[in-house]
Design goal:
The protein is α+β, with helices and mostly antiparallel strands. Helices cover 32% and strands 21% of the residues. The protein is built from 20 helices and 23 strands. Helix 16 links the parallel strand 18 and strand 19. The chain is globular and about 120 Å long.
């Protein structure tokens, strides 16, 4: 058979050598049907073999690389009002601002500092001055060049009290001067190690905003149709008749000075509730959203979606206000609350997973800053402390009463019940005015996870003889009627730190009044000195040692009970590549590296 095949092939070759070019056109009429099939099969085998061979070579010498194209749609709770880094106050404001505007520096998805608009920066030996040199190829979305004048204008706008920028406290006392068109120097009154994070603020264009007065700034159209220098630029939006935003579309910035962007279009849809948002995701109207409530992760798990678990320097705890409660002025009572709470159980159940129990106001320093959660949980110790403080359950109703006050009342009223019933319509916590009953009010937001945590706290404190009334508030009411005026006995709330953690605003005695964030009204001179020293220490290791000393003092004074830190859960489609997020300080920072995300790929030669 083999000889026959090669003989036929040799005969054909000898005959073809004698064919002229014109005679090739007559071949289909000369060869037999069997020969046609033979050569067709031979041609297909040759093509397939060649394709496989060259395909292997192609893949061997090339790598997949991002390709421009595709659309990503994300859902957001509530709508933005000011897509402007100087005026942004809500998560929605900051989310969109993060895509549209650039800072001098930036943090990547792993929390590492990198240059952005800045080409380089230098810090003086005394840590009081920061010299920044800008990239020379940066331009605004409208094509205008970006230079030092824009940076100076942005910072001066923030510092101007008439603009009411929420960032103003971060820039008080900072001087800025222009050295040349692309070089600036920031000068501080005293060394402040966390200042470097201030340089990540988004820069706004002077030529757009310089004619806008402070009175008009909040309502200016550029807050919804911004001009920035970031990886994405404003394209279009849709509103309801009352002006409420339905969706907001950004497109890639072709003038972007950095890597990418590769995604062509990013669209944001706005929803009033999480249920509405999840419904839109199920219909396929959006591709992703965050944060995801931990309890809902199982129902959102699909093969075409991924839920990222991202670390956040955020802690939740119970903050005490002994100016509103004489009971809490006794440190033994605060210690009893600490020992009565099983933080491990709270972290595992009250927030539906995704939480880590804490005993320190500084979770990023590690467990060595305070005793472990297993040791701090001791209900027998809690009961003993309350008894030492004079709180006992004499009438057997499960709630402790004050010995002295109870005896005095019994002398006047024989057989009277010590536990008062809260009248219908009376606000929560009103019954706590009865000084003989160990009853306190715990105020928190109406966020489901925090309400669930509050119920768990109430249940655990009841086991040691304390009655807790839960008072829930909307986030807006909580800020205006509770936190700012310090109108609470116990507050279940959170603290959010930046990439360069600075507990000064939360714990220094100078911050006890609004707009300071020392909601526990904590005052300790030694703690104050340590916080001031830490701010002026540029060496991270030395700064952390100082903060550990501060943490030990706070743990001893018990101005709060620190419960847990919680992860940020972010749902994205599985086909998005280039996403590398492990640590953020604010929800908006999930977009830190969005210019490197991509939906489509191409092959490029290996280097």
């Amino acid at each position: 058979m083999n000889n026959y095949f090669f003989n036929r092939l040799a005969r054909y070759w000898n005959n073809w050598k004698l064919l002229t070019f014109r005679k090739f056109f007559y071949l289909p009429h000369i060869v037999t049907t069997r020969e046609k099939r033979f050569f067709a099969a031979l041609a297909l085998i040759s093509i397939a073999s060649g394709a496989t061979f060259f395909g292997r070579i192609f893949y061997a010498v090339t790598n997949p690389a991002p390709k421009i194209g595709g659309t990503y749609a994300e859902g957001i709770l509530k709508e933005p009002r000011a897509i402007n880094p100087v005026l942004a106050v809500s998560d929605a404001d900051r989310d969109l601002s993060r895509l549209v505007f650039s800072g001098l520096l930036a943090y990547d998805g792993n929390g590492a500092l990198k240059t952005d608009l800045a080409e380089r920066y230098e810090i003086s030996e005394d840590a009081k001055s920061y010299t920044v040199t800008l990239k020379k190829n940066s331009v605004w979305h409208d094509g205008q060049p970006l230079d030092a004048d824009d940076v100076i204008f942005t910072i001066q706008t923030i510092q101007n009290p008439a603009f009411k920028s929420p960032l103003r406290p971060n820039w008080q006392g900072v001087q800025i001067e222009k050295l040349d068109r692309f070089t600036l120097r920031f000068t501080l009154r005293a060394p402040y190690a966390p200042f470097i994070e201030n340089l990540t603020v988004g820069i706004i264009p002077k030529h757009v905003w310089e004619k806008v007065s402070p009175e008009q700034a909040g309502l200016n159209e550029f807050n919804l149709k911004p001009v920035g220098s970031g990886p994405f630029q404003y394209d279009s939006l849709k509103q309801q008749p009352d002006g409420t935003l339905i969706w907001y579309q950004l497109t890639r910035n072709p003038r972007y000075y950095g890597t990418g962007p590769y995604i062509s279009t990013v669209v944001f849809y706005f929803f009033p509730t999480e249920d509405d948002l999840i419904g839109a995701w199920r219909r396929g109207d959006i591709d992703g959203f965050g944060p995801v409530t931990p309890a809902r992760i199982p129902e959102l798990s699909r093969k075409n979606s991924v839920v990222l678990q991202i670390q956040v320097p955020r802690l939740f705890g119970i903050f005490f206000n002994d100016s509103k409660s004489k009971v809490l002025a006794d440190r033994r009572v605060r210690q009893a609350i600490l020992h009565a709470l099983n933080k491990k159980e709270i972290a595992q159940t009250a927030v539906s997973g995704g939480a880590t129990p804490l005993d320190s106001p500084l979770p990023w320093l590690g467990e060595e800053t305070a005793v472990s959660s297993e040791l701090s949980y001791n209900p027998d110790e809690a009961k003993q402390l309350l008894t030492q403080a004079g709180w006992v359950d004499q009438n057997g109703d499960g709630i402790r009463e004050k010995k002295a006050l109870l005896s005095s009342r019994n002398q006047k009223t024989t057989g009277a019940k010590n536990k008062k019933t809260l009248p219908s319509g009376q606000p929560a916590g009103a019954a706590s005015k009865d000084p003989s009953v160990l009853r306190l009010t715990l105020t928190t937001s109406d966020w489901p996870d925090l309400l669930q945590t509050a119920e768990k706290i109430k249940e655990m404190l009841a086991k040691v003889g304390m009655e807790v009334q839960i008072e829930k508030k909307s986030f807006a009411d909580l800020e205006t009627t509770v936190i700012r005026p310090r109108n609470f006995e116990m507050l279940l709330f959170g603290q959010v730190y930046g990439y360069e953690p600075d507990p000064f605003a939360f714990w220094h005695s100078s911050q006890v009044k609004d707009p300071g964030l020392n909601v526990a009204l904590y005052a300790n001179r030694k703690a104050d000195r340590l916080l001031e020293e830490a701010r002026q220490t540029s060496n991270p290791a030395e700064r952390n040692d100082i903060l550990r000393q501060f943490s030990a003092i706070v743990s001893q004074d018990v101005p709060a009970v620190f419960l847990f830190s919680q992860l940020y859960f972010y749902l994205i489609p599985a086909n998005i590549q280039g996403v590398n997020i492990t640590k953020i300080s604010l929800p908006a920072n999930r977009f830190a590296d969005i210019s490197e995300w991509y939906l489509k790929t191409k092959r490029v030669l290996k280097r």
